[in-house]
């Protein structure tokens, strides 16, 4: 019995959520009820039947119109209220009829029964229309293939949750999830295989995620998860839990041995502690995802704001320049979306090498700063050259090769930070002396610049760029080893590959 009552309560709670979702609708329903009750009371107060039959008839018709309108506007909720009102009046009229046997009262009873029939019919039509409307609304925000929310809903819910977080001083976390090697599955095994992987991955993620999380298909093989009020310190644990539970559950969902090899790369960020707005939150989570894939896939990576880390390690005299550099990087991003994320990743790889070489904390900080700012001179390069897909002309190549010099000029105010401008100027020098802009050779090239050269080249190789497709990490390692001694310092190549193989993210 209790279960039936709970089910009934839930049903009417859903009806209230559907039909009373605005203050206007609530006031509207109250007015319908009020007018209907008043008209009912007026009818019940009429005593002289012969003198007032016409008036009662008019009132009864008006009241019937109101309850029918109520059923039309509020479906089963309106019908329920209408039935209570109509049956109450009908009981009063029946009692009157047995006292007076007035034929007019018999007509009134008939009208009430007819009103109940019409009101029920209208309520059924309204309810069906509402169900159809909900289906259409659901289709508008749902990805047809996977059943997850679509990108339209993603932007809508993220914006809504960020507004709520701002009002309530709470947080919103964004997790970007990418299916590793998805293009390979599509190319080799066909789109049916790819579609199957997408559907199954979405099903697993929907099973894993807690209530209150929103799974959206962000595009292609990428999913986005919006989570509210998660503690910043727990974000990596949440993402690692998703990846680990996916590993366990895929045995249950994927029956084919091929599908069991599917893995996920995950990037994440958070508002307001790490990002300031929607665009920044998306950029950070996407950048972190890109980094996770470049680190060998099947990884989780929390976005790291390199500028904030640099801020902690430079003198107070230079603090105001951080904002200027951030603005310059944003300007570059507007011209060439690849460059901003590339600079952050190069900084991370360079720090990995410097730490493996056990350099001092000060030296590591300078290398990190140089990695982040090494391409800042590209702000001087025209957009059509940066994004050109065809082969560059000799003049365009010559122009592009000036960007390390432009970077050095922009960073001149920081020249007292030991070696920074040197590292930035010489990160395209080659170990065999055929690099640019100064043609330095071997150890003539500073250690920081040699580290940046490896980090910069590796990220370029594993990234999709306008004029070239990405390599796998293994292919990039082979390329580094093949060019050790010519383009790269052989020792730094060994240290970097070893560090990448052993690092756990």
From TrEMBL:
The chain crosses the membrane at residues 29-49, 104-125. NCBIfam families: GGDEF. Residues 170-305 form the GGDEF domain. This is Metal-dependent phosphohydrolase. InterPro entries: GGDEF_dom (IPR000160), HD/PDEase_dom (IPR003607), HD_domain (IPR006674), HD_GYP_dom (IPR037522), Nucleotide_cyclase (IPR029787), Rev_trsase/Diguanyl_cyclase (IPR043128). Residues 317-505 form the HD-GYP domain. Residues 339-461 form the HD domain. Pfam families: GGDEF, HD_5. One of its GO terms (molecular function) is hydrolase activity. It comes from the Bacteria. It comes from Acetivibrio straminisolvens JCM 21531. Keywords: Hydrolase, Membrane, Transmembrane, Transmembrane helix.
